Amino acid sequence: MPVTIRFLGHSAFHITSGDADLLIDPFITGNPSAETAGIKADDFKPTHILLTHAHGDHLGDAPAIAKRTGAQLIANFEIGEWFTSEHKHENINAGNPGGRVPTDFGSVDFTYAIHSSSLDSVSPAIYMGNPCGLVIKIAGTSIYHAGDTALFSDMKLIGELHKPDIAILPIGDRYTMGPAHASLAADWVGAKAVIPCHYNTWPPIEIDISQFKPKSASVHALKPGESLEV
Ligand code: NI
Ligand code: MN
Predict the structure, then answer these.
(1) C-beta atoms surrounding 19 within 10 Å
(2) Interval between CA 138 and ligand 1 midpoint (Å)
(3) Can you list the residues of the chain whose pLDDT is less than 70?
């Protein structure tokens, strides 16, 4: 069964295959890339919502969409607890780095990410567990969404363990890898295809995409709203 990966701007992705309808880091309202592309949070009726960490540019519309649809939330333990206590959302499939959770469509592995994770809509921000990357196994395809992260050498291990077909990597620098480090990440993960994200959403993460030059992987620099089918 084909898998369609649609970029919604920043770090948000919509992955569909058969009955599976996954939203990852659904920051849509207030996301200038999504809004320019005419994408709205109400357009989606996901079966699952996946979060890499709690920062507002990833959490985004997740609470509202979870409430509207009852979609299963897949996130770290602390974010899962918060959805239940704060939003009365009970359909939670939580994990933490190193763990795999089974799902209707396959599975999700939580990987390490070097970053932070907090509720930044309040001051001081509230700690919300470890930031994660996610490896989604769906319809025979392995998709690694690295979340927000620095380059780390265990990306080689992620490549060895999960053999990702597609890697979704942040390249915008400042808060995550920049294009040079992300090029190395793509080589270490070993995916045949990479989709860059978390760049050019706002001036602080504006970069020159031509500097993203993995040696082996093909680069699919999707515009917000565009899809890759695998
Ligand atoms: Ni972040
Ligand atoms: Mn971010």
Answers:
(1) 9
(2) 25
(3) none
